[in-house]
Design brief:
about 300 residues; alpha/beta; TIM Barrel; 7 strands; about 10% strand; binds flavin mononucleotide
Protein backbone atom coordinates (compact mmCIF):
# COMPACT_ATOMS: atom_id res chain seq x y z
CA UNK A 1 0.00 0.00 0.00
CA UNK A 2 1.02 3.55 -0.68
CA UNK A 3 0.77 5.57 2.55
CA UNK A 4 -1.22 8.78 2.76
CA UNK A 5 1.15 11.74 2.94
CA UNK A 6 -0.23 15.23 3.19
CA UNK A 7 1.19 17.63 0.62
CA UNK A 8 2.80 14.82 -1.41
CA UNK A 9 0.47 11.95 -2.25
CA UNK A 10 -1.97 14.13 -4.15
CA UNK A 11 -4.33 12.62 -6.75
CA UNK A 12 -1.71 13.00 -9.52
CA UNK A 13 1.07 11.28 -7.59
CA UNK A 14 -1.20 8.40 -6.60
CA UNK A 15 -2.38 8.00 -10.17
CA UNK A 16 1.12 7.87 -11.63
CA UNK A 17 2.40 5.42 -9.00
CA UNK A 18 -0.63 3.16 -9.47
CA UNK A 19 -0.08 3.25 -13.26
CA UNK A 20 3.39 1.76 -12.77
CA UNK A 21 2.22 -1.33 -10.93
CA UNK A 22 0.05 -4.37 -11.28
CA UNK A 23 -2.58 -4.80 -8.52
CA UNK A 24 -0.63 -7.71 -7.02
CA UNK A 25 2.40 -5.44 -6.62
CA UNK A 26 0.55 -2.42 -5.26
CA UNK A 27 -2.90 -3.06 -3.84
CA UNK A 28 -3.90 0.56 -3.35
CA UNK A 29 -3.40 3.95 -1.84
CA UNK A 30 -5.12 6.41 0.46
CA UNK A 31 -5.82 10.10 0.10
CA UNK A 32 -4.10 12.52 2.41
CA UNK A 33 -6.28 13.16 5.47
CA UNK A 34 -9.37 15.29 5.02
CA UNK A 35 -9.98 17.35 8.16
CA UNK A 36 -13.50 17.06 9.53
CA UNK A 37 -14.26 19.90 11.93
CA UNK A 38 -16.03 19.52 15.24
CA UNK A 39 -19.09 21.39 14.00
CA UNK A 40 -19.55 20.76 10.28
CA UNK A 41 -19.33 17.74 8.02
CA UNK A 42 -17.12 18.16 4.95
CA UNK A 43 -18.92 19.52 1.86
CA UNK A 44 -19.12 17.24 -1.14
CA UNK A 45 -17.04 19.50 -3.38
CA UNK A 46 -14.11 19.32 -0.92
CA UNK A 47 -14.29 15.53 -0.91
CA UNK A 48 -14.35 15.50 -4.72
CA UNK A 49 -11.32 17.78 -4.88
CA UNK A 50 -9.36 15.42 -2.62
CA UNK A 51 -10.22 12.52 -4.86
CA UNK A 52 -9.27 14.34 -8.08
CA UNK A 53 -9.74 12.13 -11.12
CA UNK A 54 -10.14 9.06 -8.90
CA UNK A 55 -13.05 7.18 -10.42
CA UNK A 56 -14.99 3.98 -9.77
CA UNK A 57 -12.63 1.00 -9.67
CA UNK A 58 -9.59 2.99 -8.60
CA UNK A 59 -8.15 1.43 -5.43
CA UNK A 60 -7.87 4.68 -3.49
CA UNK A 61 -9.39 4.92 -0.04
CA UNK A 62 -10.33 8.24 1.49
CA UNK A 63 -8.93 9.18 4.88
CA UNK A 64 -10.79 11.34 7.40
CA UNK A 65 -9.49 12.96 10.56
CA UNK A 66 -11.62 14.73 13.15
CA UNK A 67 -12.57 14.86 16.81
CA UNK A 68 -16.35 14.48 16.64
CA UNK A 69 -18.00 11.12 15.80
CA UNK A 70 -21.13 12.94 14.64
CA UNK A 71 -19.52 15.10 11.94
CA UNK A 72 -17.23 12.21 11.01
CA UNK A 73 -20.25 9.90 10.55
CA UNK A 74 -22.13 12.45 8.45
CA UNK A 75 -19.04 13.01 6.30
CA UNK A 76 -18.73 9.23 5.91
CA UNK A 77 -22.30 9.10 4.55
CA UNK A 78 -21.42 11.78 2.01
CA UNK A 79 -18.30 9.87 1.00
CA UNK A 80 -20.33 6.72 0.46
CA UNK A 81 -22.88 8.64 -1.62
CA UNK A 82 -20.14 9.72 -4.05
CA UNK A 83 -20.03 6.09 -5.17
CA UNK A 84 -16.33 6.07 -6.07
CA UNK A 85 -14.57 5.36 -2.77
CA UNK A 86 -13.91 1.68 -2.02
CA UNK A 87 -12.72 2.14 1.58
CA UNK A 88 -12.84 4.79 4.25
CA UNK A 89 -9.94 5.22 6.66
CA UNK A 90 -9.79 7.07 9.99
CA UNK A 91 -6.57 8.84 10.97
CA UNK A 92 -5.52 8.23 14.58
CA UNK A 93 -1.86 8.93 13.95
CA UNK A 94 -1.24 12.54 12.98
CA UNK A 95 1.21 13.98 15.57
CA UNK A 96 0.84 17.63 14.48
CA UNK A 97 0.13 20.21 17.18
CA UNK A 98 -2.98 21.42 15.37
CA UNK A 99 -4.47 17.92 15.34
CA UNK A 100 -3.71 17.43 19.04
CA UNK A 101 -5.20 20.79 19.94
CA UNK A 102 -8.47 19.88 18.28
CA UNK A 103 -8.34 16.36 19.83
CA UNK A 104 -8.01 14.66 16.45
CA UNK A 105 -5.36 12.40 14.91
CA UNK A 106 -2.98 10.88 17.47
CA UNK A 107 -4.81 12.58 20.36
CA UNK A 108 -7.19 9.59 20.35
CA UNK A 109 -4.33 7.24 21.24
CA UNK A 110 -4.75 8.42 24.86
CA UNK A 111 -8.33 7.19 24.94
CA UNK A 112 -8.95 3.76 23.40
CA UNK A 113 -12.65 3.83 24.34
CA UNK A 114 -13.18 7.08 22.43
CA UNK A 115 -11.26 5.59 19.52
CA UNK A 116 -13.49 2.52 19.54
CA UNK A 117 -16.59 4.71 19.62
CA UNK A 118 -15.32 6.79 16.69
CA UNK A 119 -14.73 3.69 14.57
CA UNK A 120 -18.15 2.32 15.52
CA UNK A 121 -20.03 5.50 14.65
CA UNK A 122 -18.30 5.87 11.29
CA UNK A 123 -18.69 2.17 10.45
CA UNK A 124 -22.39 2.28 11.34
CA UNK A 125 -22.91 5.33 9.13
CA UNK A 126 -21.99 3.48 5.95
CA UNK A 127 -23.39 0.26 4.57
CA UNK A 128 -21.48 -0.52 1.38
CA UNK A 129 -17.86 0.37 2.14
CA UNK A 130 -15.48 -0.99 4.77
CA UNK A 131 -14.00 1.31 7.39
CA UNK A 132 -10.36 0.97 8.40
CA UNK A 133 -8.20 2.82 10.91
CA UNK A 134 -4.58 3.95 10.95
CA UNK A 135 -2.93 4.30 14.35
CA UNK A 136 0.51 4.84 15.79
CA UNK A 137 1.91 2.37 18.34
CA UNK A 138 0.98 4.69 21.19
CA UNK A 139 0.98 8.26 22.41
CA UNK A 140 4.01 8.57 24.73
CA UNK A 141 5.00 4.91 24.76
CA UNK A 142 4.02 1.63 23.11
CA UNK A 143 2.88 -0.14 26.28
CA UNK A 144 -0.76 -0.33 25.18
CA UNK A 145 -0.44 -1.29 21.54
CA UNK A 146 -2.61 -4.40 22.00
CA UNK A 147 -5.36 -2.39 23.65
CA UNK A 148 -5.33 0.18 20.85
CA UNK A 149 -5.47 -2.51 18.19
CA UNK A 150 -8.38 -4.22 19.95
CA UNK A 151 -10.27 -0.93 20.28
CA UNK A 152 -10.10 -0.51 16.51
CA UNK A 153 -11.25 -4.09 15.95
CA UNK A 154 -14.08 -3.89 18.46
CA UNK A 155 -15.29 -0.67 16.87
CA UNK A 156 -15.86 -2.65 13.67
CA UNK A 157 -12.86 -1.78 11.51
CA UNK A 158 -12.17 -4.09 8.59
CA UNK A 159 -8.40 -3.51 8.74
CA UNK A 160 -5.90 -1.92 11.10
CA UNK A 161 -2.89 -0.03 9.80
CA UNK A 162 -0.21 0.50 12.39
CA UNK A 163 2.62 2.97 12.01
CA UNK A 164 5.04 1.45 14.51
CA UNK A 165 6.38 4.76 15.88
CA UNK A 166 4.63 6.40 18.84
CA UNK A 167 3.34 9.95 18.65
CA UNK A 168 6.31 11.03 20.79
CA UNK A 169 8.73 9.39 18.34
CA UNK A 170 7.32 11.48 15.48
CA UNK A 171 9.43 10.41 12.45
CA UNK A 172 12.57 9.26 14.26
CA UNK A 173 14.91 6.98 12.34
CA UNK A 174 14.85 4.02 14.73
CA UNK A 175 11.79 1.78 14.51
CA UNK A 176 10.52 -1.28 16.39
CA UNK A 177 8.66 -3.60 14.07
CA UNK A 178 7.92 -5.97 16.98
CA UNK A 179 5.14 -3.54 17.94
CA UNK A 180 3.45 -4.47 14.66
CA UNK A 181 3.79 -8.16 15.59
CA UNK A 182 2.13 -7.39 18.94
CA UNK A 183 -0.81 -5.76 17.16
CA UNK A 184 -1.07 -8.75 14.80
CA UNK A 185 -1.21 -11.06 17.82
CA UNK A 186 -3.96 -9.01 19.47
CA UNK A 187 -6.59 -8.94 16.70
CA UNK A 188 -8.20 -11.12 14.04
CA UNK A 189 -8.70 -8.40 11.41
CA UNK A 190 -5.94 -7.99 8.82
CA UNK A 191 -3.10 -5.73 9.88
CA UNK A 192 -1.14 -3.48 7.58
CA UNK A 193 2.34 -2.71 8.93
CA UNK A 194 4.02 0.62 8.38
CA UNK A 195 7.27 2.31 9.33
CA UNK A 196 10.62 2.72 7.63
CA UNK A 197 10.26 0.34 4.70
CA UNK A 198 13.12 1.56 2.55
CA UNK A 199 13.62 -1.16 -0.04
CA UNK A 200 11.55 -3.73 -1.89
CA UNK A 201 13.15 -6.44 0.26
CA UNK A 202 11.96 -4.62 3.41
CA UNK A 203 8.34 -5.07 2.26
CA UNK A 204 8.64 -8.84 2.41
CA UNK A 205 10.81 -8.73 5.52
CA UNK A 206 8.21 -6.76 7.46
CA UNK A 207 5.51 -9.25 6.54
CA UNK A 208 7.73 -12.20 7.43
CA UNK A 209 8.99 -10.78 10.73
CA UNK A 210 5.68 -9.38 12.02
CA UNK A 211 3.01 -11.56 10.42
CA UNK A 212 1.18 -8.50 9.05
CA UNK A 213 -0.89 -9.24 5.95
CA UNK A 214 -0.16 -5.97 4.16
CA UNK A 215 2.66 -3.47 4.29
CA UNK A 216 2.42 0.26 3.71
CA UNK A 217 5.22 2.45 2.38
CA UNK A 218 5.50 6.17 3.03
CA UNK A 219 8.70 8.05 2.32
CA UNK A 220 10.32 5.04 0.68
CA UNK A 221 7.86 5.48 -2.19
CA UNK A 222 8.75 9.14 -2.52
CA UNK A 223 12.39 8.16 -2.90
CA UNK A 224 11.63 5.38 -5.38
CA UNK A 225 8.06 4.83 -6.61
CA UNK A 226 9.13 1.45 -8.05
CA UNK A 227 9.70 0.12 -4.51
CA UNK A 228 6.53 -1.98 -4.80
CA UNK A 229 7.77 -4.00 -7.78
CA UNK A 230 11.46 -3.84 -6.97
CA UNK A 231 12.29 -2.76 -10.50
CA UNK A 232 15.53 -0.77 -10.83
CA UNK A 233 15.01 2.01 -13.34
CA UNK A 234 17.53 4.15 -15.14
CA UNK A 235 17.88 7.91 -14.97
CA UNK A 236 15.73 8.53 -18.05
CA UNK A 237 12.76 6.54 -16.74
CA UNK A 238 13.07 8.30 -13.43
CA UNK A 239 12.84 11.70 -15.12
CA UNK A 240 9.94 10.49 -17.29
CA UNK A 241 8.06 9.61 -14.13
CA UNK A 242 8.61 13.12 -12.79
CA UNK A 243 7.39 14.67 -16.03
CA UNK A 244 4.38 12.35 -16.15
CA UNK A 245 3.62 13.58 -12.62
CA UNK A 246 3.58 17.17 -13.92
CA UNK A 247 1.20 16.15 -16.72
CA UNK A 248 -1.08 14.31 -14.29
CA UNK A 249 -1.21 17.39 -12.04
CA UNK A 250 -2.29 19.47 -15.06
CA UNK A 251 -5.00 16.90 -15.83
CA UNK A 252 -6.22 17.16 -12.24
CA UNK A 253 -6.39 20.94 -11.98
CA UNK A 254 -5.33 24.33 -13.31
CA UNK A 255 -1.63 23.76 -12.48
CA UNK A 256 0.28 27.06 -12.34
CA UNK A 257 4.04 26.63 -12.97
CA UNK A 258 4.94 27.70 -9.43
CA UNK A 259 2.63 25.14 -7.84
CA UNK A 260 3.75 22.38 -10.21
CA UNK A 261 7.44 23.07 -9.60
CA UNK A 262 7.00 23.17 -5.84
CA UNK A 263 5.20 19.81 -5.86
CA UNK A 264 8.01 18.20 -7.86
CA UNK A 265 10.59 19.79 -5.56
CA UNK A 266 8.78 18.28 -2.59
CA UNK A 267 9.35 14.88 -4.17
CA UNK A 268 12.95 15.59 -5.14
CA UNK A 269 13.86 16.09 -1.49
CA UNK A 270 13.44 12.31 -1.11
CA UNK A 271 14.19 11.10 -4.65
CA UNK A 272 16.77 8.35 -5.25
CA UNK A 273 15.29 6.43 -8.25
CA UNK A 274 17.62 6.11 -11.23
CA UNK A 275 20.18 8.21 -9.33
CA UNK A 276 18.50 10.97 -11.32
CA UNK A 277 19.38 13.81 -8.98
CA UNK A 278 22.48 12.34 -7.33
CA UNK A 279 24.90 15.23 -7.03
CA UNK A 280 22.43 17.76 -8.51
CA UNK A 281 19.62 17.71 -5.91
CA UNK A 282 20.60 21.10 -4.50
CA UNK A 283 20.64 22.83 -7.88
CA UNK A 284 17.16 21.46 -8.61
CA UNK A 285 15.82 22.57 -5.24
CA UNK A 286 17.41 26.01 -5.48
CA UNK A 287 16.02 26.81 -8.93
CA UNK A 288 13.77 29.77 -8.10
CA UNK A 289 12.22 30.25 -11.55
CA UNK A 290 9.39 27.69 -11.98
CA UNK A 291 9.40 27.96 -15.79
CA UNK A 292 13.12 27.25 -15.93
CA UNK A 293 12.68 24.38 -13.46
CA UNK A 294 9.94 22.78 -15.59
CA UNK A 295 11.88 23.34 -18.84
CA UNK A 296 14.91 21.58 -17.35
CA UNK A 297 12.73 18.72 -16.15
CA UNK A 298 11.11 18.39 -19.57
CA UNK A 299 14.51 18.38 -21.28
CA UNK A 300 15.75 15.59 -19.00
CA UNK A 301 12.58 13.55 -19.53
CA UNK A 302 12.73 13.88 -23.32
CA UNK A 303 16.47 13.24 -23.70
CA UNK A 304 17.06 10.29 -26.01
C1 LIG B 1 4.94 14.57 4.63
C2 LIG B 1 4.12 13.51 5.32
C3 LIG B 1 2.73 13.62 5.35
C4 LIG B 1 1.95 12.64 5.99
N1 LIG B 1 0.59 12.74 5.94
C5 LIG B 1 -0.17 11.73 6.45
C6 LIG B 1 -1.60 11.72 6.29
O1 LIG B 1 -2.20 12.61 5.68
N2 LIG B 1 -2.28 10.67 6.85
C7 LIG B 1 -1.65 9.65 7.51
O2 LIG B 1 -2.31 8.72 7.99
N3 LIG B 1 -0.31 9.62 7.65
C8 LIG B 1 0.43 10.62 7.12
N4 LIG B 1 1.80 10.55 7.21
C9 LIG B 1 2.43 9.37 7.83
C10 LIG B 1 2.71 8.30 6.76
O3 LIG B 1 1.52 7.82 6.19
C11 LIG B 1 3.47 7.11 7.37
O4 LIG B 1 2.67 6.53 8.37
C12 LIG B 1 4.80 7.52 7.97
O5 LIG B 1 5.53 8.37 7.10
C13 LIG B 1 5.66 6.29 8.32
O6 LIG B 1 5.96 5.54 7.16
P1 LIG B 1 7.42 5.63 6.47
O7 LIG B 1 8.44 5.42 7.56
O8 LIG B 1 7.38 4.53 5.43
O9 LIG B 1 7.54 7.01 5.86
C14 LIG B 1 2.59 11.54 6.61
C15 LIG B 1 3.98 11.44 6.58
C16 LIG B 1 4.75 12.39 5.94
C17 LIG B 1 6.26 12.23 5.93
Amino acid sequence: MLAPMEGVTDPAFREVVLELHRPEELGGAFTEFVVVSRNFPVPEHVLRRRLGTTGPGTPVGLQLMGPNPETMAETARRVEALGVVPVLDINFGCPAKGALKSCAGSAALRDPRAMEEMVRRVAEAVSSIPVTAKIRAGFDDADHVEELAKAVEQGGAAMLTIHCRTRAEKYQEEVYWERIARAVGAVRIPVCGNGSIKTHADLERMRRETGCRYAMVGRGALADPWIFSGERVDRRRAFRFLWRYVEAMRENGPGQPRGLASRVKQLLRYWTAGDAVAGTRTTWLREADPDRFLARLHAEASAG
